[in-house]
Write a structure and sequence with these properties.
about 220 residues, alpha/beta, six-stranded parallel β-sheet, about 45% helix
């Protein structure tokens, strides 16, 4: 039976989390909001609307949401041509593909941003499908992105492993019923990832690749 390796992208395969922190912080600052960078960092991994709601609260002026998201997109877009893949990212995906795993991305990115991320990873030959923000109604920590990735792969949750770098990833994967692996390269502490559902935690894709045989992806 087929099996699926589902991957988050930002902070898991591409080293972008702190770029998101800086550009979201600037977008909030331009709109007159003082949001600490550490708070933004903890919210990275949520979709744009959910991130704004998480940081500004339900009593915010919701008419600003679209402008804040557009400002972040414009600021972050300046880096599209030089987004850095994390160590071992492409090699890990190609190894899993060669080992018979169906590799699927599950990300809150879409459009030009997703294209830039895939160029950074440089492993399109190993990626079978992508579940993007355009494909789901609710983003992480809802299970829908992971569930959609499983649908694309054509496998049940029992035949899948999800790799991510945030508590939102771990919660989404756990709710979808898949085994979850965490990576530390997004900047979230090991204890937080484990508490949110990570079965095992690795430093980065290169570390997971080096220890693949003893992992749930082995």
């Amino acid at each position: 039976m087929d099996r699926a390796a589902v991957f988050d992208v930002d902070g898991t395969l591409v080293d972008t989390n702190h770029l998101h922190v800086a550009t979201w912080w600037e977008a909030f600052r331009q709109a007159g909001h003082e949001v600490p960078m550490h708070a933004v960092h903890r919210a990275v991994g949520l979709g744009s609307t959910d991130l704004v709601a998480h940081l500004l609260g339900d009593d915010r002026d919701r008419d600003q949401d679209a402008a804040l998201s557009a400002a972040h997109t414009a600021l972050y877009g300046q880096y599209f041509d030089r987004l850095p893949a994390l160590p071992g990212a492409g090699e890990l995906l190609r190894r899993l593909h060669g080992d018979g795993w169906t590799v699927v991305l599950a990300t809150s990115a879409s459009g030009a941003e997703l294209g830039a991320l895939r160029r950074a990873i440089d492993a399109d030959d190993a990626i079978a499908a992508t579940a993007s923000a355009d494909d789901v109604r609710e983003g992480k920590p809802a299970p829908e992105p992971v569930e959609h990735a499983l649908e694309l792969a054509g496998v049940p949750a029992s035949r899948a492993v999800f790799v991510g770098d945030t508590v939102w990833d771990m919660r989404a994967g756990s709710k979808a019923g898949v085994r979850c692996l965490g990576v530390l390269c997004g900047g979230i502490p090991r204890a937080d990832l484990e508490e949110a559902g990570a079965e095992a935690v690795y430093a980065d894709p290169a570390d997971l690749l080096a220890r693949l045989a003893g992992s749930p992806l082995g």
